[in-house]
Amino acid sequence: MVTGAAGFIGSHVVDRLLRDGEDVVGVDNLSSGTLANLSAARSPEMGTFSFHSIDITSDALAEAIARSEPEVILHLAALGGPRCSPLPRYRFPVASPCVIVPKIRRI
Ligand SMILES: NC(=O)c1ccc[n+]([C@@H]2O[C@H](COP(=O)([O-])OP(=O)(O)OC[C@H]3O[C@@H](n4cnc5c(N)ncnc54)[C@H](O)[C@@H]3O)[C@@H](O)[C@H]2O)c1
User: Fold this and answer.
1) Which H/E stretch holds residue 68?
2) Is the pLDDT reported for residue 79 higher than 90?
3) How far, in Å, is the centroid of ligand 1 from the Cα of 4?
4) Which atom of ligand 1 is nearest to the CA of 93?
């Protein structure tokens, strides 16, 4: 599973994992990322890719984890863009694992 899958780094990681033959589940709320970044991943010849348009801070993440049972979660969701002030931008990657880990533990 890759969070922030529709972002710059996430989408490249998704493409690489698919090229390596992994099954990949992408998660992104599309707040700054775009589905266009996942156009290669969504092409049929790239392998098994599914995408969940969800916020990682919502309970929908726990449901997606329970459904897909990922072996690994690569956490690349991040706040970006000129409208985001620096403090939340740097806090989010640090604080969001505290939100994700309990959702994994519940399963
Ligand atoms: N871009 C770089 O050159 C670079 C270099 C080193 C490290 N990083 C780090 O890699 C991480 C990703 O960076 P990026 O450049 O891909 O950022 P990005 O903004 O392109 O991607 C972040 C993605 O997270 C998604 N997102 C934001 N909040 C979300 C939420 N609550 N739920 C679900 N998805 C959410 C956004 O929609 C976006 O698609 C960041 O932590 C960044 O600091 C980036």
Assistant:
1) helix 60-68
2) no
3) 6
4) 41
